Amino acid sequence: MATTVTITGAGGQIGYALLFRIAAGDLLGNDKPVRLRLLEIPEGMKAAEGAAMELQDCAFPLLEHVEVSDDPAVAFDGCEHALLVGARPRGPGMERADLLAANGGIFAPQGRAIAGHAASGVRITVVGNPANTNALIAAAAADGLPAERFSALTRLDENRARGLLADALHVPVGSVHRLPIWGNHSATQYPDISHATVGGRRALDILRERFDDVRHWLDQTFIPRVAQRGAEIISVRGSSSVASAASATLDHVRDWTTGTRDWTSAAVVSRGEYGVPEGLVCSFPVRAVDGRWEVIEGLELSSWARARIDASVAELVAEREAVRSLGFA
What we know:
three-stranded antiparallel beta sheet; 329 residues; alpha/beta; L-2-Hydroxyisocaproate Dehydrogenase, Chain A, domain 2; 14 strands; Rossmann fold; 2 domains
C-alpha cells in the first residue's frame, strides 16, 4: 500500500527539490510506493501544478498519484508524513513579532487540519523557519494529537557542521560522527563538538594536534560559520539553501521512520531534559527507536557548553512567550 506524503509550500524551491527525490524512493525506500499531496496558497498553485505535471512526465514507478490543493483539509487527508516546508520569510523592516504572527497564521490552521484529517500515526516535520517555534505553534493547535508527533529540522545544521569539520581536518565526512546541534535553528544554535569522533578518535584530540588554541577556533571560526552558513551561501549563490535543506529533510524523516544506529540531531518537544523547559521544541542529540525520537541523556556538559545551550534555550522561551501573547500557543 502506498504511503501518503503531504508537502506544504510545494511550489517553492525546497518543495520542488523534495518532490522528485521522494518520488524516486529517497524518503522511504526504493520499494515503497508513495502518494504525494501538494499544498499551496492560491498564488502558488500554478507552480505546484507545473511540478505535478513534471512528476507525471518522469514516470516514477513508485509514484502512484499526485494531487495539488490549496485546501489543508484535502491536502492532509489520510496523510502519514507531513513536511511543513512553506513559511513566511522575514521581509525588509519586519519585526520578529510580525514574523511570528505571520507564521502563526500559517501553522496553527495546518496543525488543526492535520489533527482533523491526517492518519492516526502521522509524523510531522517542520522545515519552514522559524522552524522550532513554527512546530510549537502547529503542535499546540493539533488538539488530540500527541506532541511527540511533531519535530523540527536541525539536521541541516548538523550536516553543515559535519561537512565543515571534515573539510577542516581533510577527512571524509562519513568518518565524522556524534556532532549534535543543541537549541534553536538560529544564530544561537550550539554545534557540540565535545562528543564528536573522527575515524573513531575524539575530534577534540585531533583538533589539538592541528590548532594551538582549539577554543578560539571553535568560538571564532567553527561555531559562527555553522550558524551563518545559510547567509554565506546566499552571499555566494545569490539565493538561499535549497538542495541541502531538501536533503537534510529526507535524512531526518528517513531516520525517524527506519531508526538510527547512532546519534543525530532533531528539534523535539522537551520533557525537561538537560533543564530545558517542558514543552519547548528544542534541538537535542537524539536517536530514533521504533518510530520515536529519544533524547540522548546523561551527557556531560562543560560550563562553556552549558552557557551556549542556555542562551539558545532563552531565545526559544522568548519566542514561545511571544506566540502565546498572540494566542498561538
